[in-house]
Amino acid sequence: MTSAVDVASGPSGRRFFPRARAKFTGTMAYVGELSQLGWTVLQMIFRGPYERDLVIAQFESIGVRSLSIVAITSLFIGMVLALQTAYSLAEFGGKLFIGKVVSLSLVRELAPVLMSLMVGGRVGAGMTAEIGTMKVTEQIDALRALATNPIRKLVFPRVFSTTVMFPLLTIISCFVGIMGGLVVATGNLHLDASFYLRSVIETVAFNDLASGVMKTLFFGFAIGLIACFNGLRTTGGADGVGRATTMTVVSGAITVLIMDFFLTKLFLLIG
User: Fold this and answer.
1) Which of 63, 90, 136, 175 meets the CB 3.0–4.6 Å disulfide criterion with 165?
2) Would you say 151 and 143 are in contact if contact means Cβ atoms under 8 Å apart?
3) How far apart are CA 85 and CA 103, in angstroms?
4) Statement to judge: residues 58 and 106 lie in one domain
5) Distance between CA 43 and CA 122 in Å, rounded?
């Protein structure tokens, strides 16, 4: 009969610890290189100069072209929140709290996080695929041969644009989501529109909106940085581009959720 000690000391067990150590070392190296790239981009943000045309093009790609997905997601999230609130709190007079629940839930958590996940998946995958394709086709090496800094040319406009556009998209997301709750409150639950809007205005304070919007500054910077970094380290042709794109979507989503927890605690302490 084989014991647990024999299994751990067998060939599979002997391979487990080197693999775990290699995985840990690789993860730490990834985080270190990512942090180094982030510090370089931060220096460029504060020092300049900016290539205005590249930045404006990324504003359009990240912000304007994401309006539809932000509007659709936020509208139906607000409508679902209103329905769930009325159903769950029906015996406690839940209709009266719809404006408060919908507005606070959207402004503080749902709008920043869901917007960052949806838009981050869209733009992050696109950035990684674009830069990764340039990497495997040696276009980035050609930029270096022409004495052009690929970080300033490719990375900085994208990271700067995600950092700026995510808070603006969050504000739009909050507004559309609250309007979605208004549609359900007046159409399905027969509440007065003025009562709903008055409860929203009385409930949402400046600190609530500021904490939600400020989170997305960090979300946007992290997603843009991860997307560009994975694109720059892409290897292996078309398969490598696919793997890098998948890694960007997964790691970006996990990063947003982890950062959301710590930023929420920070803003609660500050507030």
Assistant:
1) 63
2) no
3) 12
4) yes
5) 27
Please report, in angstroms and rounded to a whole number, the separation of the first and last CA atoms in the chain.
61
**88 and 23 belong to one structural domain:** no
Nearest partner of 203 among 59, 92, 100, 66, judged by Cα: 100
**Count of the separate structural domains present in the chain:** 2
Residues of the chain below pLDDT 50: 1-2, 4-5, 7-8
Whether 88 and 120 map to the same domain: the answer is yes
256/109 Cα distance (integer angstroms): 12
Specify whether 100 is located in the same domain as 25.
Answer: no
The C-alpha atoms of residue 219 and residue 257 are separated, in whole angstroms, by 9
Domain that holds residue 22: 1-48
Q: How many CB atoms lie within 10 A of CB 145?
A: 9
- Give me the DSSP letters along 152-209: IIIIHHHHHHHHHHHHHHHHHHHHHHHHHHHHHHHHTS---HHHHHHHHHHH--HHHH
Residues 55, 36, single domain; the answer is: no
Does 88 share its domain with 176? yes
pLDDT tens digit sequence for 166-180 = 999 999 999 999 999
- Residues making up the chain, counted from first to last: 271
Burial of 216 (C-beta count, 10 Å sphere; 0-12/13-18/19+): buried
